[in-house]
Amino acid sequence: MSSPLDGLVVGKEKPSTMGADIQKGISIFNNRKSPTQPRTKTFETSKIGEVVGFPSQEIVSHEVVEQTGFRSLGLNSWLCENITSMGIATATPVQRGCIPAILAGRDVIGVAQTGTGKTAAFALPILQILGREPYGIFCLCLTPTRELASQISEQFIAFSAGMTLRCETVFGGENIRTQAKALMLRPHIAVATPGRLMDHFLHCSAVAKCFENVRCLVLDEADRLLDPGFEAELQAIMHNLPSANRQTLMFSATITKSISAVQELALGKALLFEALKDTQLAGRCKEEYCFIAPRVKEVYLVHILKRAPTWGTRSMIVFAGTVRKCQMLKEILSVLGINCVALHAAKKQARRHASLSRFKSGEIQIMIATDIASRGLDIPTVDMVVNYDVPLIPRDYIHRIGRTARAGRVGRAITLVTQHDISLVHQIEQLTCRKLVELSKLSEEAILKDMAQVFAARRIANLNMGAAGGFNEILRQKRSKCTK
Asked: What confidence category does residue 54 fall into, taking pLDDT thresholds of 50, 70 and 90?
């Protein structure tokens, strides 16, 4: 009788009874070539004006910006004191490159690795400019996820200590009438997700009118916002914003060419700051892969989670490719007695917030998430990221593993790879110019010991999710509402 582990790779030992498809996949994967063409930019700078709609631009590398404190960047003393009180002593390259230009009123595109302080790079100068002429709504900041919107608002408030700042966060899952009333009071800053803000604009002209004097527009995680999926929302929002005398700021770890919906975002000369070294994945993050058979991915995940504490891991994020898989992994781990939380779009906003809060506080050390957690979330204690599913879009890999090794810390990223993922891994390695290293020292005996228990937990999880009133039914109802 063949073992359920036939065809697996455990450490560097290959079982003798390997399925033909797995054997072929391993041969192809292990003999893959290293990326040969180094990438020093995330896009062609010669075409940036054509793509983004900026008539001209200046390209600045962080290599020519000297190490400096915040005061020399032109920030007022009260802001510098607030920054110092938060334990921030030195400006990062993206902050040094962008803050003076924003203070000077220029349009800016900031490209830098995750965890390098991009939020502070736009929040600090915006607060200083707002302090000269406080009115609402002065700044609109758009971001793709609810969790990131909440985090940006929190950082605006933290940086503005001593200043009577009114900042409103606008996203789905909350009472739209309450939000409309708050916006009509004209807060200084509105941080919003595009879908919910578009709903406000379409259903209440009075709310739209509150944005007619917006001085500053920020697109955070710009590469995601400028994807075709947000085109309708952005067009509706841009239609209600002033084009004259408006400063436009775009920040991301990667910028793509999907910008047709906002060809006229910035009308003046734009500064493109590209932190060349920071856009490459830093050596602080150890990137590894584990080549396995699809049928035992959960077994390997459980084994890695059990081993993680012996590697010094404090907390970790496991990324799943779909909402259903995310919830399934959460159910399996719960059955096995492994405490974890899940973060995905099918959860109500209150439960999403509660899950994230428990993880951030350290109450729970494992979070299973979809890609809504891959961007912007700043949780310094995250030591490890596990890609249970290889991302279909290579640049999403950069954002996922950017949840660890933040702000100079070290981290680890482990990607579970099956024979179906080889092409995707090749694309990721070509994008990052880094070859993933094989994860070693996994115990076949320990994995075999876990297998029966994990398979039993998977059966129970499937039954729970498929029961009346279970997650599958909730997900169907949610999707049905979205299609109406």
From this structure: very low
Amino acid sitting at position 432: T
Whether the full predicted model's pTM is greater than 0.70, yes or no, is yes
Our CA angle for 132, 248, 101, nearest 5°, is 65
Residue at token pair 């012996």: 310
Q: 12-47, pLDDT tens digit by residue?
A: 344 433 456 666 666 666 666 666 554 433 333 333
The amino acid at residue 379 is I
Distance, in Å, from the CA atom of 405 to the CA atom of 383, rounded to the nearest integer, reads 7
* pLDDT tens per residue across span 302-336: 999 999 999 999 999 999 999 999 999 999 999 99
Backbone angles phi, psi at 386, to 5 degrees: -115, 120
- CA 282 from centroid of its chain's CA atoms: 17
* Residue that is written with structure tokens 């803000």 in the block: 197
Share of the chain above pLDDT 70, in %: 80
Residues of the chain with CATH 3.40.50.300: 20-38+280-483, 45-279
Please give the Cα distance from 132 to 92 (Å, whole number). Answer: 25
Q: Token pair of 204, please? A: 């209440």
Helix axes 194-203, 176-184, angle to 10 degrees: 80
Specify the amino acid at residue 343: L
Instruction: Give me the residue label for tokens 């391993």.
Output: 26
pLDDT 10s digits, 398-436: 889 988 987 678 899 999 999 999 999 999 999 888 899
Distance between CA 17 and CA 293 in Å, rounded? 13
Residues 6+ apart with CB under 8 A from 290: 9, 300, 304, 414, 415, 416, 417, 438, 439, 442
Instruction: Determine contact, residues 78/127, Cβ cutoff 8 Å.
Output: no
User: What value, to the nearest 5°, has the Cα angle with vertex 211 and ends 207 and 217?
Assistant: 135
The third-level CATH classification (topology) of the domain covering 20-38+280-483 is Rossmann fold (3.40.50)
Sheet harboring 341-343: ordered strands across? 341-343, 366-369, 315-319, 382-387, 411-417, 285-291, 437-438
- CATH homologous superfamily, domain 45-279: P-loop containing nucleotide triphosphate hydrolases (3.40.50.300)
Secondary structure, 3-state, 233-299: HHHHHHHCCCCCCCEEEEEECCCCCCCHHHCCCCCCCEEEEECHHHHCCCCCEEEEEEECCHHHHHH
